[in-house]
């Protein structure tokens, strides 16, 4: 690994901006987020970036690294071509706030529109339920989602066609799948899936599955079974 | 006059991790209007990082478990300086709180007969942690978040509170700003619940994210509330140590719960060499018995790797200091060895510890199914916090409540793993219930515009500092973290802590000079500058309290007083802001435990 690398970071807000090159020291084991923090501490204290856990568990530091939607905390520098500047940009599917930070509040508003969990009456007199592990495995896959919104970012229905009014995006199709396939849930969300949630817009290009940092098989395990219902 | 937006809520909850969400849900369900403020996006709080599970005596895996065993385990782990009433309420109410999560949609791992599965953890006599692989915190926060947003709670995301507003001795609201735009907000509220988490960012090596700057501790302190037990800072025994950029990131205790062992560079399982007297009766003295325990043999005692976190951390520090550490200055944590005992060990590890597998593979190029991890202690949790009433969670200031990590009491000198998530649920709910009641019974508060103006001026004052030669906010924060790590860390002594107090004086002065570049829009430099006073208040409270406790107990270890002192078991250390603005330290006697609880402890010895 070279002793230093250059990061070409999109600075600015919705009114305008430009790419700024920052060269900083790099070392074995570093991830992109480490480099951004180093730049922040040494050269650009007001560089805006979201992050929390730094271990791929919270889904805050989503951005585009050399054009690929990724969590910066899980992007190892050793996997990137450091001889050229590494290009860091904010997600494209959401309004820019500043630098690497976008306004993702639309996602939170969408979730409110999905009918919440509604369980069947308890199975046992003590008010508890019985479920086999094999029955919950499928739902547990969907519940791994860390809400990084990278799948929303890469989905062309949102990113290119901007259909925010009529389509909830892969993240919330996974959310609907998690509820619909929950062994205890008795709510019916199928009518709204087709109308308000716009599942028909998805034409199964599987871009979302490719970028999911949790490895959720979004298209095959969540969206296609919902389409087939 | 400052320009600000006003928001009115009956109850304002500050912090949206497990405790804040649970408090907000409870208050809202009782019919009052609730505002929930968080520094990050909703669902990103540190609860999401909790891996191992939620401790609750459901007795699904071992029917010998009940609240009495859980209570006794919690008190033993806390070395008997816990608030015994909180420990009792916690042990009694945790099972109902876990079942409630299931009713709200959480999907826990299952027993063969279809109930909630429970796993072994340090200091818990029986398998007690309800869990979802090693991502229990994510399951919990998402369940609460989804429940909360459908209940009509107003969420103010990415919003920092810099000051509580007090009127005639009662908390009546808060002042803050939205982080994306930097615009001021005034929250009028009849009751305020603090649920801001910990202070981990006061230390260099920590599992905590940027958010854990002791905000709730400092807000409460400034409003006149007591902080208690601040000398007790938990250093989790197993944080990642290599490569340097991942230093401090948590390695869940479940690795040991599933059979993982700690070894030194000579391959010795050093935990067998030092088993404290209080735990001798319930700890295995040979490897065979320890293994059988992790595999569910009810006749076996637990392996010494599952002793309490304070003790395991000190044993690791001893191995490293005496030259038996691993190449990068830690020890080895090995789960891969179980392949000698279990068929399909590789699949088993990936299923039980998926995020650990993922974390080491991606961040350290280590396959934990094949090779050991290198680990060392990392600052993880503060047992100390706002002193609250056990039943209501109200602080010593009327209208101000606290729950979760930022409150003190349940954990005493050391928290057991898994007791945090249950604490968030049990006392988050209680705080929400009682804050709502307080709000209903109290009239609206009066917000003094002059105080709002002062708060607004203080918030933007860093932009007006002209000293271009002064150190920036990140530099001052780093110097504080290094000093606290070196001088008020795992092993403490009077002279070093005196030096830390002097160092804090200098850091306070530097914090008032840090310049801030740019404007108010999403400016991390500004945010870091505003966090500094909170971190310094928390650090000073830790240091002064640690000086006051002249003994070693739980997470607080003094080289100059290496033993437990029976007389020191009779008080908690409290700090509060005196009229002259100086931090005062006081010893507060622990109330006598009722005979029926004392008897429970005796029976469980």
The CATH architecture assignment of the domain at 236-378 in chain B turns out to be Alpha-Beta Complex
What is the H/E string of chain A? Answer: EEHEEEEEHHHHHHHH
For the biggest sheet of chain B, the summary is: 7 strands, mixed
CATH superfamily of the largest domain in chain A: Alpha-helical ferredoxin
Helix-strand makeup class of chain B: alpha/beta
The CATH class designation of the domain at 236-378 in chain B is Alpha Beta
The tally of beta strands of chain B, per DSSP, is 20
| Relative helix content of chain A | 25-40%
Shape of chain A: elongated
Greatest interface: A-B, 59 and 67 residues
Mean pLDDT of chain B: 96
Can you identify the CATH class of the largest domain in chain A?
Answer: Mainly Alpha
Annotation, overall tally of beta strands of chain A: 7
Explained architecture:
The complex is a heterodimer of chains A (229) and B (605). With 229 residues, chain A is of the alpha+beta class. Helices cover 32% and strands 16% of the residues of chain A. Chain A is built from nine helices and seven strands; from the N terminus they run E-E-H-E-E-E-E-E-H-H-H-H-H-H-H-H. Chain A has helices spanning 32-42, 105-113, 133-143, 150-154, 156-159, 169-180, 190-194, 207-211, 218-228, and strands spanning 4-13, 16-25, 62-65, 68-71, 86-89, 96-98, 101-102. In chain A, strand 3 and strand 4 form a beta hairpin. In chain A, 48% of the residues are buried. Among the domains of chain B are: 236-378, Alpha-Beta Complex (Flavocytochrome C3, Chain A, domain 1); 459-589, Fumarate reductase/succinate dehydrogenase flavoprotein-like, C-terminal domain (Methane Monooxygenase Hydroxylase, Chain G, domain 1, Up-down Bundle). Helices cover 35% and strands 17% of the residues of chain B. Chain B has helices at 18-29, 67-77, 84-103, 136-149, 215-222, 254-257, 287-294, 309-321, 345-352, 354-364, 419-441, 449-460, 473-487, 494-511, 524-548, 595-603, and strands at 4-14, 34-37, 54-55, 118-119, 129-130, 154-156, 159-167, 170-178, 184-194, 227-228, 233-240, 261-263, 331-334, 373-382, 385-386, 400-402, 491-492, 557-558, 571-577, 583-589. In chain B, strand 7 (159-167) and strand 8 form a beta hairpin. The radius of gyration of chain B is 23 Å and the shape is globular. The mean pLDDT of chain B is 96. Chains A and B meet through helix 1, helix 2 and helix 3 of A and helix 3, helix 4, helix 10, helix 13 and helix 15 of B.
């Amino acid at each position: 690994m070279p002793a230093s690398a250059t990061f070409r970071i999109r600075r600015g807000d919705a009114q305008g901006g430009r790419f700024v090159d920052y060269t900083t020291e790099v070392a074995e084991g570093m991830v992109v987020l480490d480099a951004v923090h180093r730049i922040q501490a040494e050269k650009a204290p007001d560089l805006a970036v979201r992050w929390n856990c730094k271990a791929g568990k919270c889904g805050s530091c989503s951005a585009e690294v050399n054009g690929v939607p990724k969590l910066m905390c899980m992007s190892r520098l050793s996997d990137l071509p450091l001889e050229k500047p590494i290009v860091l940009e904010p997600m494209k599917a959401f309004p820019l706030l500043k630098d690497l930070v976008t306004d993702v509040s639309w996602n939170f508003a969408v979730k409110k529109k999905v009918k919440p969990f509604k369980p069947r009456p308890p199975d046992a007199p003590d008010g508890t339920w019985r479920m086999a592990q094999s029955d919950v495995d499928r739902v547990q896959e969907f519940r791994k989602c860390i809400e990084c919104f990278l799948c929303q970012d890469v989905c062309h229905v949102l990113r290119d066609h901007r259909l925010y009014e009529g389509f909830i995006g892969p993240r919330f199709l996974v959310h609907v799948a998690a509820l619909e396939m929950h062994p205890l849930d008795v709510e019916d969300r199928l009518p709204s899936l087709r109308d308000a949630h716009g599942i028909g817009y998805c034409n199964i290009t599987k871009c979302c599955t490719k970028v999911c940092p949790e490895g959720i098989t979004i298209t095959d395990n969540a969206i296609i079974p919902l389409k087939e219902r | 006059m400052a320009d600000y937006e006003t928001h009115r809520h009956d109850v304002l909850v500050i912090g949206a991790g497990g405790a804040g969400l649970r408090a907000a849900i409870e208050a809202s369900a009782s019919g009052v209007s609730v505002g929930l403020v968080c520094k990050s996006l909703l669902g990103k709080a540190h609860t999401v990082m909790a891996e191992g599970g939620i401790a609750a005596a459901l007795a699904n895996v071992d029917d010998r478990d009940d609240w009495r065993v859980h209570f006794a385990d919690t008190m033993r782990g806390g070395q008997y300086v816990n608030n015994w009433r909180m420990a009792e309420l916690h042990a009694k109410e945790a099972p109902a709180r876990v079942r409630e999560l299931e009713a709200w949609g959480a999907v826990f791992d299952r027993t063969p007969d279809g109930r909630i599965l429970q796993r072994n953890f340090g200091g818990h006599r029986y398998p007690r942690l309800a869990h979802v692989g090693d991502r229990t915190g994510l399951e919990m926060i998402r369940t609460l978040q989804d429940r909360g947003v459908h209940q009509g709670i107003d969420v103010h995301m990415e919003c920092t509170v810099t000051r509580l507003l007090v009127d005639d001795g009662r908390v009546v609201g808060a002042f803050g700003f939205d982080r994306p735009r930097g615009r001021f907000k005034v929250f009028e509220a009849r009751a305020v619940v603090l649920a801001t988490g910990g202070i981990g960012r006061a230390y260099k090596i920590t599992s905590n994210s940027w958010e854990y700057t002791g905000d709730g501790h400092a807000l409460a302190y400034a409003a006149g509330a007591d902080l208690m037990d601040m000398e007790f800072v938990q250093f989790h025994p197993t944080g990642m140590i290599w490569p340097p950029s991942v230093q401090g990131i948590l390695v869940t205790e479940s690795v040991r719960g599933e059979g993982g062992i700690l070894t030194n560079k000579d391959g010795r399982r050093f935990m067998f060499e030092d088993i404290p007297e209080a735990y001798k009766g319930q700890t295995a003295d040979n490897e065979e018995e320890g293994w059988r325990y992790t595999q569910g043999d009810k006749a076996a005692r637990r392996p010494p790797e599952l002793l309490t976190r304070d003790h395991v951390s000190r044993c690791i520090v001893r191995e490293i200091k005496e030259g038996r550490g691993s190449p990068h200055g830690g020890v080895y944590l090995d789960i891969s060895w179980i392949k000698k005992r279990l068929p399909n060990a590789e699949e088993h590890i990936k299923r039980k510890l998926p995020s650990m597998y993922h974390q080491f593979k991606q961040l350290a190029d280590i396959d934990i199914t094949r090779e050991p991890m290198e680990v060392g202690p990392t600052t993880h949790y503060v047992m100390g916090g706002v002193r609250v009433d056990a039943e209501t969670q109200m602080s010593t200031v009327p209208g101000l409540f606290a729950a979760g990590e930022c409150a003190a009491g349940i954990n005493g000198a050391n928290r057991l793993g898994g007791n945090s998530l249950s604490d968030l649920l049990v006392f988050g709910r209680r705080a929400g219930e009682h804050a709502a009641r307080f709000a209903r019974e109290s009239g609206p508060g009066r917000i003094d515009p002059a105080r709002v103006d002062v708060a607004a001026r203080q918030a933007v004052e860093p932009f007006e500092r002209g000293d271009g030669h002064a150190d920036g906010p990140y530099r001052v924060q780093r110097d504080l973290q290094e000093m606290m790590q070196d001088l008020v860390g795992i092993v403490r002594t009077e002279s070093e802590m005196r030096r830390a107090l002097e160092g804090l004086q200098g850091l306070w002065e530097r914090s008032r000079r840090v310049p801030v570049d740019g404007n108010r829009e999403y400016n991390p430099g500004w945010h870091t500058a505003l966090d500094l006073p909170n971190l310094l208040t928390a650090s000073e409270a830790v240091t002064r309290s640690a000086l006051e406790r002249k003994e070693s107990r739980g997470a607080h270890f003094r080289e100059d007083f290496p033993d437990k002192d029976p007389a020191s078991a009779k008080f908690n250390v409290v700090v509060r802001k005196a009229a002259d603005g100086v931090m005062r330290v006081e010893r507060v006697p622990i109330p006598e435990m009722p005979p029926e609880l004392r008897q429970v402890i005796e029976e469980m010895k």
